Amino acid sequence: MTGAGAPDGGGVEADLHLHSTCSDGLETPGEVVARAVAAGLRAIALTDHDTLAGVAEARRECPDGFEVMAGVEISSVWQGREVHLLAYDVDPADPDLADALARSRADRIDRAARIVERLNRLGVAITMEEITALRPDAGDPAASVGRPHIAEVIVRRGAASSVDEAFARYLRPGRSAWVPRRSLPVDRALRLVRAAGGSLVIAHPGLNLSLDQTRSLAAEGIDGIEVWHPKHDPGTRDRLARLASATRLVATGGSDYHGEGRSRGGPGTCGVPIGTIARLRDRARAARGGAGA
Ligand code: AMP
Ligand code: FE
Ligand code: FE
Ligand code: ZN
Description:
By secondary structure, the chain is of the alpha/beta class. The protein has helices at 29-38, 55-60, 95-121, 128-132, 147-156, 163-171, 186-195, 205-208, 211-218, 234-246, 275-290, and strands at residues 14-18, 43-46, 67-78, 81-88, 184-185, 199-202, 224-228, 250-253. It is built from 11 helices and 8 strands. The longest helix is centred in the middle third of the chain and has 27 residues, at 95-121.
């Protein structure tokens, strides 16, 4: 049974998908760790959008015996569509990866400014300063600006009644203030993550890819598929779990927690047994060996 939050409907020991204030989450890395510990987890991966900035704090705040994997959710593009990739166990100091992520964050700021211009033309009078001020680390180039920050300012201005409505009205693809982003091609993300020692997983494919598309994207050299995600219904989880097993990829999962009120469930409501982490590491090691490194 794969309908529940983890393989066999139980056994959630690690949550491999969590956001903090370093991107569009509402809680600091330390607060996220505290919630994960309180939920009885043994490990997490902090996976902020396009930044590894929260990993050091999360590690400082975690108790003995609890593991924080370095993670990052990479905004990527494949066959002209936006896909999210979860990288695990990368070296946060790897200069090439750090440089690529810094470019993505700079592009996020450019894009936010262009979205603000569009909103202003539509009569929604908000400023970039209001958006960056929402982040506790406002102005820190290591933190990622995202559409949820813009949505929150739209709501405060009274131009939408909720973040969801702000997305539906202005921010989704095709809506009046939508601006596409320049994202990292998947093959480049793969090379960077490999060189930084990590593994790479397709995030929540059930939200934006068909099963066939997931299969062909996975064939590019991906290590795993995120199966247990709060927005995957039981049928999707079953199909993705079978695909992972048939293609010998690692089935991963996590809550995609963005904070109380911005998420379906807290840390640990979706996740994996602790052994999944070792399977991801085996894949990264095998890829390194295969490359002769
Ligand atoms: P961005 O990183 O700027 O592309 O914004 C994407 C983020 O917005 C996702 O990671 C989600 O956290 C959030 N998001 C996407 N769609 C919605 C929605 N309809 N309502 C609220 N948040 C959303
Ligand atoms: Fe997000
Ligand atoms: Fe995502
Ligand atoms: Zn996420």
